[in-house]
Amino acid sequence: MKxxxxxxxLIWIPLVITMWVLSLVVTTMDQSLLLLPEAWRPSTWIGVxxxxxxxxxxxxxxxxxxxxxxxxxxxxxxxxxxSLLARIPVVKTIYTSVKQVSDTIFSSKGEAFRKAxxxxxxxxxxxxxxxxxxxxxxxxTRRLGAGHVSVFVPTTPNPTSGYMIIxxxxxxxxxxxxxxxxxxxxxxxxxxxxxxxxxxxxSHTIAL
Length: 208
Prior knowledge:
This protein is an alpha+beta fold.
């Protein structure tokens, strides 16, 4: 009986969590319909609320925004918008910080979150999986000296939070793993991909 119960849980738990996440995403994106006049909303035409129309609207807005920002006029509008936000004290701090992070992550030329590494954390006798985010800034480099890297160490099973640590690059070991494989390993608390982790890590270190 215990065997059947565990087997059933292994089937239902991933399915329920997946549906819950998808429901959360769709529900959140459906809120974009509130930006439309009530007469334009699909629920007004059909008579009932159908989940998913907000997803289409959100993706359409993102696509059109990207297309607009890709030309000269759009770039000037973006510059004007950012200069306007820069005049608002609290908003300026939040917007600038978030924009720097998003620009670094989504830049095709950046190295942030492109490599999974092993680092000693939280103490020298243990190892954990982290993601290389780049080199420290000038002030930190002046204090610590050259040869350090910034690494994001996510928590498990929720990798959206974690710790940013600065370590000597000689103390990091690059893993022969894709980022999504490393994330799967972290989220599963070391269960997924455990056979791959049993192999010895490569001995070379990261060079920036």
